[in-house]
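Long-time lurker. I teach an intro course on protein structure, and each term I like to show students one example going from raw sequence to a predicted 3D structure in token notation. This year I'd like something fresh instead of my usual example. Would anyone be willing to generate the tokens for the chain below so I can use it in lecture? Attribution to the forum is fine with me.
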Amino acid sequence: MGSLIGHAASGLFFFLSGLWHLYSNVKLYLLQPNSFKSLPWFPTAKFRYLELSLIILATSLYLVFELFVGPSNHHPFDKDGTNQLRNFQHSSTFMSFLVYAVFAILLDRVKPNNVSYGLTELLAGLAFSLQLFNSRLRSTDHAGVEGQYHMFLRPLIAVSLATTLTGIARPNSFLVSFVRSASLLFQGSWLMVTGFMLWTPQLIAKGCFINNENGQLVVRCHGSKALQRARSLVNLQFSWFLISMASAAMSLYLLMVKQYSGERSEYRTMKSDKLLDERLEGIEVECLEEDGGLKKSSTIQMGSLHRPADNKQTLVM
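-- Reply from a regular --
Happy to contribute to a lecture. Here you go:
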């Protein structure tokens, strides 16, 4: 993953996952605020396992490129038979997400219930734990500019891990699911920013350059002053990035509130009308049993008089 393509591809994976979960959680909450329950993954109307299938496809492609296509000898081992540690560290993270997606499908097909969803969340937490572990202990140098970018990535992964595990005990909490989805969105965006800022020569900080070290492109700086300046710029970038992404998440929520508030009102109106019809039918049946149909017309007339002419008057906004 130590390249522009590797960071951009993995960042796009997390970005799309976070965006899909953020949209689905907000929509589900706006339509059913009282019975909201977040899901570890969200089925679609045409194909139930579309999200999980895309995860399996994306992670499988990443493993193939990382282990077989990317290396110059097209296999994950050096000439002396030892493995290329960096490639295996990157691959193990995506392999954990592959395992998560596969078992999520199997658990849902066997018995979809609260226990299976909890186990699926646990597998997701395991994947984030391994991602955090590899990000902290990977074999590349963390003292330079690249290390500064990855230092800010770790808190985002930690938030994803914490909210995923919290979601097992609190699946009805909208705030937990919102933060978890937003953290995935932030994580993917920051990975893409890291890829473009580190491996685009025009975007590298003043006084720094790209150096080829054992087949790996690494950003180095001329002296400690240039390095300190580059790291300070990364700090500033992350501050602006965090503000921008938080604003984007809040804006998405407000737009969806405006869009789905009408559907929520219509849903409540239909539900209220259904309850009213059931009550009227009960009154009618009771009157028929008492008077042999004498009060049938008066009962229907009473129902029509008490039914509001405009359904909007019965809405609870």
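Some talking points for your students: The CA atoms of residues 7 and 195 lie 5 Å apart. The first helix runs from residue 4 to 31.
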